[in-house]
Amino acid sequence: MITIKAKTVVKGVVRGEALVSHIPISFRGGVDSNTGIVVEPGHELEGQCIAGKILVFPMGKGSTTGSWQFYEIYKQGKVPKGIVNIRADGVVAVSAVITGTPMVHNPEQDPFQYIKTGDMVTINADEGYIQIE
């Protein structure tokens, strides 16, 4: 098991299957609000569903209305269980705050070296770390 310290954005402890993107994600237009499926053409995760996953990606991108879109995804029950970012931007951080989605950022080690899609990952944002099984 690998443990990586990270800074807490939204507290909580969750465990789930990782869904990893090496490129930023836009919730405004990049993720279908009814299904939680990434719809951005050419995106690394195009066609995959973020619902119930530990979503690992560098940062958000795009419009400030992304937080509203994330909330719409939340109302449909299609948001990730937790979020790991390299650098939390305001849109993703606000999205996590308004939906209570546990989130960490600024990890002490590069999570992309250790976390692959399908890995079981725990976010312990209460104590500030990520564990990869």
List the helices and strands and how they pair.
Elements: E1 2-5, E2 7-10, E3 13-20, E4 54-57, H1 66-75, E5 82-85, H2 90-99, E6 103-105, E7 120-124, E8 129-132
Parallel strand pairs: 3-4, 4-5, 5-6
Antiparallel strand pairs: 1-8, 2-6, 3-7, 7-8
Helix pairs in contact: 1-2
Structural commentary:
Helix content is 15%, strand content 27%. The longest helix is centred in the middle third of the chain and has 10 residues, at 66-75. Helix 1 (66-75) runs parallel beside helix 2. The chain has helices at 66-75, 90-99, and strands at 2-5, 7-10, 13-20, 54-57, 82-85, 103-105, 120-124, 129-132. The protein is an alpha/beta fold. The chain contains 2 helices and 8 strands. The protein is globular and about 35 Å long. The protein starts with a strand and ends with a strand. An 8-stranded mixed beta sheet has the order 1-8-7-3-4-5-6-2. Helix 2 links the parallel strand 5 (82-85) and strand 6 (103-105). The protein has a single domain (2-132), classed as Phosphohistidine domain (Glucose Oxidase, domain 1, 3-Layer(bba) Sandwich), CATH 3.50.30.
